Every structure is written in C-alpha cells, then in structure tokens.
Amino acid sequence: MTDEQFLEFCQINRDLRIETNKFGELLIMSPTGSETGNRNLGIAAQLYFWSEQDGTGLAFSSSTGFTLSTGAKKSPDASWIKLERWNSLSQEQKEKFAPVCPDFVVELMSLSDSLNTLQAKMTEYMEEPGVKLGWLIDRKQQKVYIYRSGMPTECLENPDSVSGDPVLPGFVLKMTKIW
User: Fold this and answer.
1) What is the predicted pLDDT for the residue at 32?
2) Is 158 left (phi over 0), alpha (psi -120 to 50) or beta?
C-alpha cells in the first residue's frame, strides 16, 4: 500500500499498533497491557521533561510512526530527535510518518513480546543513518540492553538508572518505577 493508504489504515484502526517491515508487510500488535502502558508513559514522561529542559531536540511517544530508510514504518515506545534533523524535514513529512529514524529509541518489552523479535527490531534501528543510541528494557528479567552506533550491545542487570550520555547529555532514566 502507498504511504497515504498506510496512514489512512492506521487512522481507521487507532486501537492497534501497526508497523511494516522493509518488505511492506503489515505487523499488527495488540495494545499493551495496562501495567506496561503505565511504564511506557513513565519512560516517555522522563524523556519529555528532560527534552523540554535540554531544548536541543524533540521527544516522541509510542504512538509516533517513523519511516526508516528501508521503507519500514516503526513506532518505538519512546524516542528523541535532534532539532536540526527534525527541522530539515518538510511540514508535510512531519505530519505523516516522518522519513527519519530518531537519534534515540526505546523499546519496553511487554509480556507478549519476544526478546529475539525486539532485539532484531533494535538492530534494524541501529542500522539506520542518524540513530546513535537505543535501549531495550526487559522488565521481567530487569535488564537493559544498550545499543550504540558502531559498538557491541551492552547489558545492564537491574540498574537503578540508565544514562543517555553523551548522546542525551544529562538524561538519566530512573528505573525504580519502570521495574
């Protein structure tokens, strides 16, 4: 389907999380459970408040779709883009699924998610131009997988907090309410 058809399909089916892979195949995910939704909001809120104080970029919620360079359309649970990258897009691009992968992406694993599937999604993000940092949060195992451009994945076990430095200077995600 065209970009316009995909946007219309998503708007008709607002209760579903819909993405596509690089082959254009639809990936339909059920809404998150209430507890995971609360944790997603907590992550997005911490990122938003830091972003507002920092002023160098914009934070986005889990309902935001982005078009990757492969044509895949993805919606990270939380994300952030530097202002100069965002401002380089046209108004029309910003109003649809912006053709850009965020500088920073977060995926929070829900009970129905597979670790392997989310790790593959994180790898897909990290192959994109412009992305610099990604966090995959596994609440059940209390692990945070940290993805950095051009570096091996790091795994933190039961951290109290996770720092976004140097990509997001001064941003620290407090994990106490996420676990």
Assistant:
1) 79
2) left
What amino acid occupies position 57?
A: G
The number of residues in the chain equals 179
Q: Locate tokens 């694993």: which residue?
A: 109
Residue ranges of the chain whose pLDDT lies below 70 = 30
Cross-strand pairs, 78: 106
8 A C-beta contact, residue 90 and residue 119? no
> Which 3-state string (H, E, C) describes the chain?
CCHHHHHHHHHHCCCCEEEECCCCCEEEECCCCHHHHHHHHHHHHHHHHHHHHHCCEEEECCCCCEECCCCCEECCCEEEEEHHHHHCCCHHHHHCCECCCCCEEEEECCCCCCHHHHHHHHHHHHCCCCCCEEEEEECCCCEEEEEECCCCCEEEECCCEEECCCCCCCCEEECCCCC
Write down the pTM of the prediction: 0.88
